[in-house]
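Hey, can you fold this one?
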Amino acid sequence: MTLSKFKTGLLLGTAFLLTACNGDDATETAEATKAPVETATTEEAAIKDLDYKMVTYDTPGQTDEDHLYLEEVLGEEALDQVKTWNKRTLDHLMADPRFEEMQGEALEILNSKDKIPYVSYRGGEVHNFWQDADHVRGIWRKSTLESYLGEDTSWETVLDFDKLAEAEGKNWVYKGNSCLAPDYAHCIINLSDGGKDAVVRREFNADTKSFVEDGFVTEESKGTASWLDADHQVIGVDFGEGTMTDSGYPMVAKLWTRGTPLSEAVELGRGEKTDVGYWPGVFELSDGRREIVISRSKTFYDSEVFWVPMEDGAPQAPIQFPIPAKSDLGSEFKGQVLLSLNEDWRGFKSGDLVSFGIDDFMEDGEIADVHLVYSPDEKSSLNGYGVTKSKVLMSVSRDVAGTAYAFDWNGEDWSSEPLDFPENGSVNIGATNDKEDVAFISTESFLTPDTLWTFNTETMEKAQAKSLPSWFDASTMVSEQFFATSKDGTKVPYFVVRNKDIEMDGTNPTLLYGYGGFEISLNPSYSATRGKLWLENGGVYVLSNIRGGGEYGPKWHQAGLKTDRQRIYDDFISVAEDLIDKGITSPEHLGVEGGSNGGLLTGVMYTQRPDLINAAIVAVPLLDMLRFNKLLAGASWMGEYGDPDDESKPEEREFLRKISPYHNIRPDVDYPEVFFVTSTKDDRVHPGHARKAAKRMEDQDHDFLYYENIDGGHSAAANLKETAKRLALQHVYLMQKLSDGETEMDSDEE
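Sure. Predicted structure:
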């Protein structure tokens, strides 16, 4: 188990960053005034002004409190407003003759039998979660490795979620399982109602393919549950009043014994209400031991990690690992625990991967020797790694292009050797198991479909297992990497994917995608729906690798934290300007897209530089940056954005006010017709963000489109049909704005 995986469920936009490789892929009371804080004599002057982002207007006669009703997720007045906006938008976009065609193309890709069935390998079997036209909610299925590697895999269904939902009258969305090694029969199934992060956990027997009567079951809650052994679970959920943090995550960890009510579980420890979360888990060691560990996330990036020794079946006082707060404790390999550093420590630098002996620590609670595993240079970054029985497999990128290595520990130091995989794309370490030598590695690029490889870490042999078909004609296309110069002189990489023969005359419809946060890297990826719906229709696709991400390691991310965040937006703006300077596109034909933290990015883009774009997809976004910390999981992201309510740091609130898209919508600016996309069931980023921004635009008579899916969670889609619909809506919108040249919805449709 990798402790850093607990952060995965906290990350903004992990479900909406880039559509999946197989087919695609959070109030301030203000005096009402029309006068700006800083005077701009004309709209054009305001846009050109370098301090344009500092100018704030409010709607006359209105304060932020007027929109608070939109934060009532299921409030009648709020939903009536949503339905009105939805109808207007759907009537407009679905009337476009391209909608049905695009929806059909997207659904064909998403439901294709030719998708790669990505698998995990355990106990000699491969396991896969699969969705298609016949399995809308999906099935959990398994096969033998030999059959999987053959031409026609013979699958055995373990659990059918469509049948389960129908039988129980629930809108179940599958959120994964956790099974106890080495037999993998005792499992916990995570089920979400409509796609929310909060799940119901139910014990399932994978051998009998049935839920266990009187087994481990929890009510709906965010949190974690891990097997210590067949009769004990280490669990952190909502145990009742006073057991959840301000961020909405568990604050208490317990040891739960089979046959006893959850209320009788033994407490292992607890954090503080102001923490992000208190995450209990089980550390699986290569010699078979299973140890209890707890990660206390004091902020999103600062953690304390504890080992809980057991004596005679009883938990003892936790012992803290003496590791830096900004680090991620990873897997164990041959007695060495891997540790990713996000700050300098003991002579090693931020971005390094190091290791230390687990038995050394458990003997006296100290760490004597630390060993360097891998150290990136200024152009490189560690993308990820996976532990097998014989090797540690690692993905590394240099200027965002990926390579892979195998690392080994000889008892004294680490050695490595490069692996032979295609260059100039992405190399991703997929499913690994520390009890097996069989690992799965995938490769892809913008124009080359995914290929899944098996790699045997004992023999160091690889073989192609599966590959995607080509869903669009890439022979006429080219992908290129460029570097824009940001406002402070930083070189910012970005990729352009286009037809080889386009004219550099500024007329090409161009979509610029970005994220810029949480140390998430955006790497080259093959998207069948992007290729079919956008590239084949003459669109140019641009992927920006702006600061805030992890493309060049922790420092690239940390350069845009809190009050330094404007650097991220300046980077994105510099890419847009570079595209225009090169003649690839022009403001009339340039659109931007981003989801979650990327929705904040595109929200800032249309409020700071509306002169650069004619379209903006603002998806599952944070937009009210003065209340983000009060809504759902928002408090967990103050390590990224800052705290608008910390009176000891007024500069953070002042800065957030300056960038907050909701607070910087102005009545006298000509904005592009923005498309807000969100979900009622998103329990990570509150739909109130998109709702309130849309309402402020409506109050100021600005044109916008709005679509809120009633189900779907943070991905804004609960199943493949909903995903296909969303993709079609977005691409019709982009074609209308960037190819057809629409500037606003026809007046007779309003």
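The first strand starts at residue 120 and ends at 122. Let me know if you want another pass with a different chain boundary.
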